[in-house]
Amino acid sequence: MNATSSPKIFVARHAMGRTVRGPAMVADDGFSARYDLDRIAGVFSRPAHKLAGRSYVGQVLVLDTAKGGVASAWMLHEMAARGVIPLAIVFNTVNPILAQGAAFGDLPMLAGFEVDITAAIADGAQVEVNPGARTVTVLG
Amino acid sequence: MKLNDEEQDILAGKAGPVPQEALKHQIQVGDFFGAADFVPVTQAHIMADTESLGEAGVKWLESLASTREGRRRVRIPTITDPRGTDFAKAAFLGQTKAMLTLEERAIAAFVKLGVMMTDTCINYQTVQPATRNEHVAYGDTGVVIYSNSVCGARSNFEGGPSALAAGITGRTPRYGYHLPAQRRATVRVRVDATPKSLNEWGALGGVIGRLAGNYWAVPVIEGIEGAPGSDQLKHFGAAMASFGSTALFHLVGLTPEASRYSDVADDGMPAHRIGRADFEALQQSYRKEDKIDVVVFSAPQLSLLELRDLAGLCEGRRLTVPLLAITSPQIKPDCDRMGYTRAIEEAGGSVLSGMCFYQSYAREISEAKGWKRLATNSAKLVNILGGYGYVPMLASMEACVDAAQNGRLA
User: Fold this and answer.
1) Strands (E), B174-317
2) How far apart are CA B146 and CA B149, in angstroms?
3) Cis before residue B180, ω within 30 degrees of 0?
């Protein structure tokens, strides 16, 4: 599963940003700022999304993959400017748009694990995302 | 990343702060994906509607545009995706002065940066298609998947800030679909039924996109009969990219890198079979209502041939609900000149240009106009608009025009 001795530390292949701690919001689903979010209200708004209706503000989103179009590259920056943004995003797989958006919006991001990260971390768990070490740690 | 002498000079600020910041951003992305170096690109295409940028993004553009030190203008042809409005039809759409002011500010900043305001997501049909092995930095997923797959060009999805950075530096990190190895197929699909209408092409693209599931998956598709045209592959690719974040597909015997299956894929990959029932099921899954509030043809913008078909369907009709047909600024003058605009608008429809429906404050348009139940022949559009509070429904162009006349989708 992971390259460390602890079963609650997961190592990513791709990482950027600063270290943050917060609650994990987990779903085996994708992410697109344009397709999935009401960015004004700060909630998942696409009815078919597994997190529909839930607020993502201040959450460490743990999701399967980046979806959809290129708008997320701007939108994360715009969401950050208004303070209505996740704390970090952790993906099984990411596309360039979300990585570019994270770089532009200063959003910590990890991607690429040897386990399905959406099955390994429980919804609501406290986690630490440490891009410098390329790890996400379940704190409790 | 390995930097050459010129890149080291840019990073050191010798070309000024704008290229320096652009290269820093590109290095951050390149490092994230393990890029070894940069690759020169010949064109960039920027998705930058102001709904996405917001005030923060426009201020950032203005700060770049007002930089006096060093070089701030793009150094390769850099074009734009649709804007957030058609200024001539903004009042009809219920768009506010604040939206239009933000658009005007963004356009002014782009012009100062040397960007060509082409405002199109079908540049491969209107401006200049990329060619095989040409490295480009394109935004808009539909543009990327078409250019990679149908033209054989090489691009990743480049979001607005990254595409602008590529325009300014003339290069992009060499990862993903710039690498030949990444272009090999990873998902094998055997299609048992070739779509007929554009909505069916889109629906099939959506089914394959869902199956592929992520950006790094490359479908190789067998079984397509005949030679699909540009509009068919436009809807097919745009939907695949929308549903699956897919950036490249191969059609065996049709697209340039896949004369034979073995050109792009290894033997022994299990094939997923997809038939007519699968893409019809995707279409049916969106059929929630009979009554409709609006019909929209957009995403991607319509070609001149699509507008010709639409004009023919509208001729002599009296539409009872709004019908919007959205095209590019390059196509619109021909649409006017050939009488297609007149035929559509005399029936009660509207032809708009330079925007795309979902990139133009679709949620606010819905609230201003009371439009919720929407019929379209674009699979990409139905995939997007659910998140904007619409009930989008997918049907043929003919059925959509009938619905615009009768108020109901048969």
Assistant:
1) 187-191, 219-222, 250-251, 271-274, 294-302
2) 5
3) no
Lookup: tokens for B285:
């899954």
Q: How far apart are CA B84 and CA B78, in angstroms?
A: 18
Q: Quickly list DSSP for B43-72.
A: -EEE---HHHHHHHHHHHHHHHHT--SS--
Closest CA to B32 of B173, B180, B241, B183: B173
Question: Range of B264's domain?
Answer: 184-283
- Asked if B156's CB is within 8 angstroms of A66's CB, the reply is no
Backbone angles phi, psi at B251, to 5 degrees: -105, 115
The pLDDT tens digits for A31-78 are 989 888 999 999 999 888 999 999 999 999 999 999 877 888 999 999
- Shared domain for B139 and B252, answered yes or no, is no
- pTM of the prediction? 0.95
ipTM score: 0.91
**What SS3 class is residue B5?**
helix
User: Is A136 within 8 Å of A121 (Cβ atoms)?
Assistant: yes
Give yes or no: residues B217 and B234 share one domain.
Answer: yes
- The verdict on B50 touching A (C-beta cutoff 8 Å) is no
* Fold type of domain A9-138: Glucose Oxidase; domain 1 (3.50.30)
Please count the structural domains in chain B: 3
Residue B59 half-sphere exposure toward CB, CA atoms < 13 A: 6
Q: Do A74 and B389 touch (CB under 8 A)?
A: no
**Among candidates A15, A34, A81 on the partner chain, residue whose Cβ is nearest the Cβ of B384:** A34
Of B28, B161, B359, the CB nearest to A73: B161
Torsion over CA of B360, B362, B365 and B370, rounded to 10 degrees? Answer: 160
